[in-house]
Amino acid sequence: MGQRRIVVGSALALAATLLVTACSGGSDSAGSSDDIDTAPKGEGQTLTVWTYEDKTSAMGIAWEEAMKKFTEETGAKVDFQLKSFEQINQSASQVLNSDSAPDVMEYNKGNATSGLLSSQGLLTDIGPAVKAYGWADKLSSSLQTTARYSDTGVMGSGNWYGIPNYGEYVQVYYNKDLFKKYDLEVPTTLDEFTQVLQTFKDKSITPLAESAQEYPLGQLLYQLALMNADRKWVTDYQTYTAPADFHDANWTAAANTLKEWVDKGYISKSSTGQKAQDAGDAFIAGTNPIFFSGSWWYGNFTTSNKFDWGTFLFPGAKLSPGSSGNLWVVPENSDAKDLAYKFMDITMSPEIQNLLGNNGGIPVAAEPDAITDEKSKDLINNFTTLNDQDGLAFYPDWPAPTFYADLNSSLQELVNGSKPVDAVLDQLQTDYDKGVKEIDG
């Protein structure tokens, strides 16, 4: 294994196997890096930044410091607006096509989100800024995959429309105190994991904190589908290199397992009305001892959990949901683009990246010796393990613009029993095919 920067460096080889076109060739961006002012002065100006990172999260802590540094260096003020993931996800196209667009926005990566907006002309091609600031030198090819999009909005090649400055993945969070109370060990296989779930249910404890209204349950379904999948399966699903079949062995087994877990009480039927934050809060409260979700919860749990807790990768999995983190994007309607680029560059600086890493984030350009927090090291080590086995499989909702909502809707029907497994898979197939056709023709 080659030398790597903290977490990411040359060990990240995902793009080479996932997207054969990833990052090929140079950007044909309009303009030149010579047009970018890398030392803009912003006295009397205000930079509007939208993000959905909680202030207690690693990213929230890091961006708060970045704003202070930005103001010191440019003289500009920052109007920092915290939005929910759903607010930005549902209204991005409308807002970015209006005078209310922010100057910098955190946005989800993938064909259905950043890819769609780029194809609609709503995001700025930031290729000149990438060259002027040297951001490409800080990002491995796999991280660049989600930052570049073709004319039709398919990730992996084309112009730069965003910059990721952290990594992320989905893992299992568990309540160590409750595991100890019931003499449970960290499971290493899916069968052992199921036995843990049953043990808690036998003690009248619903083991899994879940949300079917938002992303957590969709990520669990995808993880179960990935258990016997390979890289080609992921590539076909994410980039349309071959038709995806929701009645194949992987999806069928995943949906049946999820339905079984609901029937056995491992997942509450009330999760149909739960949002992601509700599920996270239930884990924090100690109501549910297990939560399968993203590394972005790590910082919040560090400050909020009143019990001993830990993490592990999903038992027996070689592939799991994960990728670069969300992107900083610059709306085309922004009238402060040089200041926007400066703010983005500050978030990529060693000072901010080190802060991110020491507060439970996964930095892309930190200094290895600067990461001293032990829990943060655990988080980074889990990511490194997953990454070293070429295990980042992106996310289930990425392939099509409306598939996030479609997936959640279908899973709500699976959980509440209004549709049988076959009918749910039929609906997912219809929604997926419709969405891919809109992108790929």
UniProtKB/TrEMBL annotation:
Signal peptide: 1-22
Entry keyword Chloroplast: no
Keyword field: Signal, Transport
UniProt keyword annotation of Aminoacyl-tRNA synthetase present: no
One Pfam family in the UniProt entry: SBP_bac_1
Domain of life: Bacteria
InterPro entries reported for this sequence: Bact_solute-bd_prot1, SBP
Database matches in PROSITE patterns: PROKAR_LIPOPROTEIN
Family: Belongs to the bacterial solute-binding protein 1 family.
PANTHER family reported in the protein's UniProt record: ARABINOSE-BINDING PROTEIN-RELATED, OSMOPROTECTIVE COMPOUNDS-BINDING PROTEIN GGTB
Protein name: Extracellular solute-binding protein
Native source organism of the sequence: Kineosporia mesophila
